[in-house]
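task queued by scheduler; priority normal; single chain, no ligands, no partner chains; default sampling; output format set to structure tokens
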Amino acid sequence: MGNWLVNHWLLVLILVVWLGLNVFLFIYTFLTYEMSDKYYYTREILGFCSHTLRKPLDHNLTFHKLVAYMICIFTAIHIIAHLFNFEHYSRSQQAMDGSLASVLSTLSHPEKAGNSWLNPIQSPNTTVMYVAFTSIAGLTGVLITTVLILMVTSAMEFIRRNYFELFWYTHHLFIIYIICLGLHGLGGIVRAQTEESMSENHPHNCSESYQKWGTHESKCKHPHFEGHPPASWKWILAPIALYIFERILRFYRSKQKVVITKVVMHPSKVLELQMRKRGFSMEVGQYIFVNCPSISLLEWHPFTLTSAPEEDFFSIHVRAAGDWTENFIRAFEQQHSPMPRIEVDGPFGTVSEDVFQYEVAVLVGAGIGVTPFASILKSIWYKFQRADHKLKTQKIYFYWICRETGAFAWFNHLLNSLEQEMEELGKVGFLNYRLFLTGWDSNIAGHAAFNFDKATDILTGLKQKTFFGRPMWDNEFSAVATAHPKSVVGVFLCGPQTLAKSLRKCCHRYSSLDPRKVQFYFNKENF
């Protein structure tokens, strides 16, 4: 086997190039599909299915990244294999030893009478760099690689968080990527012997007498080669068609008129918009895409809906977290100018839709990450007011972690209303909420300690006191497991990845090995 590989290493490289290209195209089919919102539409279509079937769709971003990594790996394999091939082509063109490789290199080239060439290096003076930038396959390959590098590097966490516009525009270079991918095979660099030539000159029989090809002494003629027809379009046609259809659908939905009914500016630079739109229907925890043409015609940003399905409007809360959000908030703060026009697409489903499928729910929000749980808690308030007996959830644990006291302000009214509603209905124990302040100093802590005996919290005005620091998750999960020894507990997070790792570990640690006892299921919002 080792000797065969040594003697046929060129064939092995060609097979690697071919295999790498096809695997790459197969993976790219999935990437093109799941990067569009068709992935979210699929989740909605599967809404009638079990939670187990829909749960993998909530990890679409993780799958998106995994597919991108696989594309990078197979692109590298593809490029390296081609570089080895071109090095062999160059040596064969320069060889003067009359070997089979050198004879095949002298077959006619495109500028000559025939088109039966095998070696793309057309003369001893031709370099690999020249072929890379003058041939269709080489030039499109360079563009594809350059675009891929730009897309991957600009998608790093630091750039996405701090320079979102750079990430957003660079990621849309995929249009150039797709065009070059469709044209990449037109050059016919990877070639094979034609069927007609194969029937006249069998490779195994004629390869031994290559020096006598075309003479009376040999029955073998000069072989003829042709490039493989382009195949990439077959792989990308279906996902591109789906993507175009999805864009047309989004364009149609976004052009439906949105009426802004109320604008509220909360502390900590949080803007609340209440809106109405014809035919708009939502569920708890869903989100929408928002575009403000006066800021940017092309940028669409996701925002979680903070209203409840029972309300006659839908709302979002926007925190200043970048250039676009700062300009967005500033546009609505200007009282003497006309209200900016916005476009809305959605809503789209998330894991939070499944919160009412659990007997016990643990909701964890960090900063503005509390927004999906605002929708959930509002909906619970309406369900209790209307005596909804279909509510499966028996207990909710709510944790909100914030850096500054002002962040609690806009949510206090809702929590206060829920406290009063639970007391009136005799269900004080239904909602157990805890607020954690991580950005505090000795003055704040001292002031809170001095007024600890008061009926309401000095910082929030709620009956539940504010905790200083971060939750001790092991203690919290242990208490929940003890209180609900035979329940299925859904843990929902909207927050940073570091917190997600801690909660995921706790879910595994405190889930019983006995399926009849307490089980924790972790769910995280992904945007």
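post-processing summary
- Residues 287 and 303 are 5 Å apart (CA to CA).
- The longest helix spans residues 60-94.
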